[in-house]
Specification:
The complex is a heterodimer of chains A (about 110) and B (about 120).
Chain A (H helix, E strand, L loop, with lengths): L3 E4 L2 E4 L5 E7 L7 E6 L6 E5 L3 E2 L7 E6 L2 E6 L9 E7 L4 E3 L3 E5 L1
Parallel strand pairs in A: 2-11
Antiparallel strand pairs in A: 1-3, 3-8, 4-5, 4-9, 5-6, 7-8, 9-10, 9-11
Chain B lengths: L2 E5 L3 E2 L5 E8 L7 E7 L5 E7 L8 E3 L7 E6 L4 E6 L8 E8 L5 E4 L3 E5 L2
Chain lengths: ~110, ~120
């Protein structure tokens, strides 16, 4: 099974900061990676798919990069609405795995 | 507007069974792969399983933690997906979400979730 490891597990940052979250796969997943944002009590929301493609309606301050086993989610300038938990997910087509999550908190 | 609505969650005893439903609207359900994802309180997301479309032979696959106990099915005439859960364990306690996987993209539509509590 493919394991997904996110770092850090938690992150404190301020409005306006640039933030990067890393996701590593235990084996190559090409570009079959998605990023989700989840707020307390709500369902996850798709931000990025195929490692770097922005989902319709998602602000352009969110961006994704990487391929193979190493991926990053970057928020270029944090807004108050961005404080949430972020998950990566691999979807290579048979078994699907989420990372453990990164909780982004206000400093 | 696309919508997914889960139902059927409740308190059930260990060893019991439960069937969840996911009613879809606002998109072409019959052509979509449907997944179930769960989340225990205060924990991360765990993928449970998926069912593909008729064009892909309704193929199913499951996480190791539920394989042999859970079964996903669908009724395209009713735009509904199901999760049959048998031999429930306390560790199956979670909010269960259904979600649509769009082609080569991610999981773009999610329901609001339904709470399953396994306890004596």
């Amino acid at each position: 099974d493919i394991q997904m490891t996110q770092s850090p597990s938690a992150l404190s940052a301020s409005v306006g900061d640039r933030v990067t979250i890393t996701c590593r796969a235990s084996q190559s997943i090409s570009s079959w990676l998605a990023w989700y944002q989840q707020k307390p009590g709500k369902a996850p929301n798709l931000l990025i798919y195929k490692a770097s493609r922005l989902q319709t309606g998602v602000p352009s301050r969110f961006s994704g990069s990487g391929s193979g086993t190493e991926f990053t989610l970057t928020i270029s300038s944090l807004q108050p609405d961005d404080f949430a938990t972020y998950y990566c997910q691999q979807y290579t087509g048979y078994l699907y795995t989420f990372g453990q999550g990164t909780k982004l908190e206000i400093k | 507007e696309a919508q997914l609505v889960e139902s059927g969650g409740r308190l059930v005893q260990p060893g019991g069974s439960l069937k969840l439903s996911c009613a879809a609207s606002g998109f072409t359900f019959s052509g979509s792969a449907m997944h179930w994802v769960r989340q225990a309180s205060g924990k991360g997301l765990e993928w449970v399983g998926r069912i593909r479309s008729k064009a892909n032979s309704y193929a199913t696959t499951y996480a190791a933690s539920v394989k042999g106990r859970f079964t996903i099915s669908r009724d395209d005439s009713q735009n509904t997906a199901y999760l049959q859960m048998n031999s429930l364990k306390t560790e199956d306690t979670a909010v269960y979400y259904c979600t649509r996987h769009k082609d080569d993209e991610g999981f773009d539509y999610w329901g609001q979730g339904t709470l399953v509590t396994v306890s004596s």
